[in-house]
Amino acid sequence: MDYQRIIDLYYDEDDALRRILVVHSRSVAQKALLIAERHPELHLDKVFIEEAAMLHDIGICRTNAPGILCHGTEPYICHGILGAAMMREQGFERHARVCERHTGAGLSLEEIISQGLPLPHQNFLPETLEEQVICYADKFFSKTHLDQEKTVMQAERSLAKFGEEGLERFRHWVEMFE
Length: 178
Known about the structure:
Elements: H1 3-10, H2 16-38, H3 46-55, E1 64-65, E2 70-71, H4 79-89, H5 93-101, H6 109-114, H7 129-138, H8 152-160, H9 164-177
Helix pairs in contact: 2-3, 2-7, 3-5, 3-7, 4-5, 8-9
C-alpha cells in the first residue's frame, strides 16, 4: 500500500494542513516503530504500523478545527470515523479500524454516551496490538506543537480530562510498551 498516494487523494501538495498531518503522523509512526523494535516478542507487523500510523488522522481535513488549519464541517472528535470511511472507500479495512479506534485511548460505548459525543453508539476501542501501539504512540504528539514529544505524565494529563477509563487503558499500555 502506498500511503503517500492516499494522502495525495485528500490533501494538496502545498497545503499547510497536509504538512501538519504528515509531520504529526511521521512522529507517531516513528514512536510506534521504535516500540515494535524494542518488543520483538509482540510480533508486530511493522509495515502495517508505518502505513496505518501515517494515515490514522487522514480524516482531519473534513473537520472544523481552525487552530490546526482544518476547515471542514464536522466536529473534530469525528475525525477518526471520517478517516475510517475514507480508508474503507479505498478498500483498506484494517487501516480504517486504526483511524476509528485511535481517538483518546479508544472510546467505549459507555464513554461516548456519558460524554454525549457525536459518534455512533458503539465501541471504538483498539483491539489488535498494532491498533493499540499506534493509539498509544499518538498520545505523545499534538498537532499544535509538532516539534515536541510529550512525557508519559503530560500524555496522562491530556487524557485525564476525558475520564478514568481511557487513562487506565493508557497506563496499561505504558506497562506493556515502555
